[in-house]
Structure formats: C-alpha cells, structure tokens
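Example complex used in Figure S2.
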Amino acid sequence: MKVKKFLNYMEEIGVKKAVILKKENINYFLNNYFPFAIALVFEDHPYLYVGKLDKDYASSLDIEVREFKNWKEIFNNCDAVEEELPIKFLKYLNDYKIISDKIREMRAIKDKDEIKKIEKAVNIVDRVMDYIYNNICYYNNEMILCAEIEYLMKKYGSIKPAFESIVISGKKTSYPHALPEDKKIEDILLIDIGAVYEGYCSDITRTFILNNNEEMKKIYNLVKSAKEIVEEHLKEGVKTGYLDELVRKHFGEYNNYFIHSLGHGVGLEVHENPNFRENITLKENMVITIEPGIYIKDKFGVRLEDMYLIKKNKAKKLSNAKMWEDEI
Amino acid sequence: MKVKKFLNYMEEIGVKKAVILKKENINYFLNNYFPFAIALVFEDHPYLYVGKLDKDYASSLDIEVREFKNWKEIFNNCDAVEEELPIKFLKYLNDYKIISDKIREMRAIKDKDEIKKIEKAVNIVDRVMDYIYNNICYYNNEMILCAEIEYLMKKYGSIKPAFESIVISGKKTSYPHALPEDKKIEDILLIDIGAVYEGYCSDITRTFILNNNEEMKKIYNLVKSAKEIVEEHLKEGVKTGYLDELVRKHFGEYNNYFIHSLGHGVGLEVHENPNFRENITLKENMVITIEPGIYIKDKFGVRLEDMYLIKKNKAKKLSNAKMWEDEI
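Predicted assembly (656 residues):
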C-alpha cells in the first residue's frame, strides 16, 4: 500500500528515480526494522542497497536486494531525494525534487499495523512505569534506576531506548532535558522514557513527588489537570494551537514556566509530524503525545506525558501507566 | 587546544564563520557529552545554540550559549559547513567551504583526555565480557542475555550502547550483522558490543563455542591467530592494507569468507578515521579496532575484535576481556 502510494506520487510529480537514505523512511517502506540498509531506491519498483557483508541477512526481507558498489551507481539518473540528504552527494545530482514532505505526510497518518507496533512500544513503557511505581522505594540512585528501567524495557521487547532516557531528580527536574548521574534520588523524580518496538517509538513521562512539599504538589496537580483538559478536547479536527492555548490559560501565572511545545507526533521517530509548532489540525490515526510541564528555575519541574491515537469523536489514550497521586 | 587549532585552520583557508551541526563534532569541541545542542558556530570564538528549554542546563558548559531563534540567523554570513549538512539548509548559503576533512583528521589523533575516556569505555566492556565468560551457562536466550549485557554496561557507567548490540548464536553468526531475538542460544555465541563513556565509544567482539564442533574450533583458532599476527605488526607507520593482506594470506582458502574490513578507527563515533579501506598509514595516538572474521554461509561465523592505541614502537592493546579458549 505505502509503496504503491509512493510510486503513484512519483508519477504525479514526474519523478523517475527517488533515492531514500534516511533510516526511518527506509524502515517505513520496508515494513520492517532493518538498521543495516544503505539506500532504498524507487524506480518502477523499490529495491534496497546493502553492504556485501549484509547481503545474506537482508535476503529474508520482502524486497529486491542489491549489493552496494558505489554512490555513483545509486544516484545515477536520480531525480528525487530527501531534504536531509548530506550535501556531499550533490556532485552526483543534476536537477532534483524533494520528496520529504510527502513521506512526512504519509508517515503522520498511521495504518493498523503501525498502530499495533506503537501500542506494543507503549505497553512496554506502561509495564516498566508500573514496576517503578510499585518499587520506587528500593532505588536511591539516578543511574542505577535508569539502568534498571532500560533493562526492563529491553526484557519486555524494546530494541533500544527511543531516546536518551531522562531519569532525574531534585533541582535537575527544573531542566526539561537532563541526563541521569551517579547521584542520590531526592525530593522529586521525573522519568521520561520511550521504547522501540519493530522501529516504532513510545514516549511517556511520569513525575513522582517524594517529599511533602506543598508547592510541588500544587504544581503537580496543575500540570495533571492541564493534561486532563487537553484530553477532553482531543479529537480529529482540533488545532494544536488551540490545545496549547487551553493549557496556557489554565496555567495562569505559571504560563511562562511552560517552555516547550505541548506535544508532538510519534512513530518511527520519537518526534515527527504532526509538528505542534505549525498549529496543525489533528487528523484521524495520527499518534501524538501531550506533555504539559512547568519548570521553576533552581527549584524543580513537573512534566506528565501520555500518548494518544486521534479518532473522529474522541482520542484513544494509548498509555495507561500509573500516575503518582497526591493523597490529600 | 582543539578550538585554537580549528580557529587557526579557519584563518588559513580564509573562512570567517563555520557552522557545525554533527553531534559528534560538537561534542568533540565541547570536550563534553551534550546531546541537546542544536549548532556550534565558530567565528572569532565558538558559541553554542540550544533550544529555549535547554538554556539553563547548557549554562554549565564551558562555552558561550545562545538561544536558538531560527536557522537564518545561524547561517547568516556562514562560509563553511560539514559535508553531512542536509541539503535543506542550502537556501541559507552562498559560497561555502567544506571543513569535514580537517575535523576528521583532527579527531583521528586522540589526545590524553580522549584516550582516558576511550579506556573507560573499553574497561566497561571488558568487565561485562568477563562476567559473561564466567556466567554464560546461566543464559539461554539471546534477547535476555543482550538485556543483561546492556544493563551491566549501563551500571558500569556507559551512557548507552555504542551501536545495536550483536548478541547472536547458531547459524545467525554467519551474518556479520544481525540482531538478537527471543531465541535459544545454541552451538556458538557471538557478542559484539560497545559502551559509550562521555561520548567516547568502545567496540569489542568475543565468540564462544558452546559445543564440540571441530570445524568451529579450527576456524576459531584461525581467526585468533590472524588477530595475533596483526598485533605483532601493529605500530606507527604500518599501512592498513598491509595488515589486511597479512590476514588474507593467513586465512588461505578461507580468505573469501572474510567479507568485511579488518578494522576501523574508534572515538566519538564507533566508525571513524582511520578508514581501513583507504589503505591509511597508522599514526601515533590513533585508536583502532582489529576484527578478523570468517563467515561460513548457512553454518556459522567467528569474529574476534580488540581495540588498540597506536604507538611508535608497538601498539598498546586497550581491551583485555577474557577469550574463550579451545581446551585441546
């Protein structure tokens, strides 16, 4: 289906030979996770270039496989490439069209098979988060907890972490991005992790308050209720800018502490279309995250992130990891 | 030192503003592992662009930090870029020079600080391999063993696997690259893994024969002795093509089963200069792997890989993980 759709598109725009180098785009058309590919070429049919050493291994793929000889052969008569193409290949090209927008557009709407794989990747993180929720008292070091989390994800079927796992505590949570260190877990713990299942990613965040700080609890509940407000409005036809505004209004005086985008598409890449910064209208079968957060400099930060499948009347929440609850 | 050397080079070739996007190049000049950078710019001094959300976190780095606004600002008056630059940025450029060769050349020769980091990354894998050597009898599943290996690497200080860990057994070892599956470990086990310490990689392979197959033992000893022959000749001034020929001669009738390059440089990337395919003359303080292998189709494969620091009179072997020994 994907291949046919893309071949039709090539005909439409008058392209005879497209060369695809981006790994995620190759895996998209392969319907498979194969990290050893060198290039995917579309002429009247698609074929895959791999190194001599990978030719036997690639023969199990459902595609014609050719042995890589040189780049000149691959780009010979090529008239369409991705916008990510490194400029070192320009010498092989004359005139070319860019096919990235079309592939991004195709990839933004997930088919049944893709949704299943994403659900698997989500489920892996759900299981890990629930384990952490129940056993958090046994961990007191960021690095060790992170190692345990990645071990469990792998054991549950993840190929690798979808991105550098964020397992941080204390003041460090005031940075939206930070890396775990060989450091005691204290006060507040933020876990933002993703699994990869057959190439498809998940991306989920939980924050746990470990002390009795009232300000933390207040901010936590503000972030939590912001996510719930978005969930009520999440369905086909809604604009991402509208959702962002809902959250910012709800945050009130804390609006300036929400210093990143409300969410993003997820699939073969952990950040892909829809791009929330472009104020996109959500469509059926898009898979997105919603991740409101408040970061108070030199103090702490709270972020909560879940994944959703956009549907006509109401989005389906894909992630169901337990959330820390304020007992008050 | 690196920064000064690069600024001198810019002056030499008449470049006023260089933009660097490649993560490993950015980390190289930062002397730090910072995966959240957007661009490193060199004018009369270097400065780093990061997203608004990462500005506070980046302030601990020893470099001027600027907030990313748009690409136009970054590329304004830029006259030098990397060859990996995506073509989508061409619209911001007029004439430009390519600075990749110089950076590759600089990165191929490691300084003391880099060597220390690589030794740490090597030591992590040594420890893991020794654990596996002593406990292999307790594992019978590729995926689970791989999860355990990555867990131990992380626990011992690795940020992440340096590449997709190859933990495969049986006939699958006849593929130089293959991924672990939820599958019983049998007959022969090949483990090719790497750690990342402060951005610097290691890359080490061990093969364990788990049955009594005489052909496997014969091939194993042939690969092992090939590596030893290379070790005897490994020092500054030797050409990689010469080393490759030594191995191919030693392999005799099995020469055609050695279907990849003998080794590669290692540093911030697991494959970097020196590129063995270019028949490079080895220089002092290059860090390389030597990895002879024999792959017999539909049967099995054996690969052994160690890491070395090139020195004037004799290379220093960096990796010391135990090797399976034929007891005969």
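The first helix of chain A runs from residue 2 to 13. Chain A has a mean pLDDT of 96.
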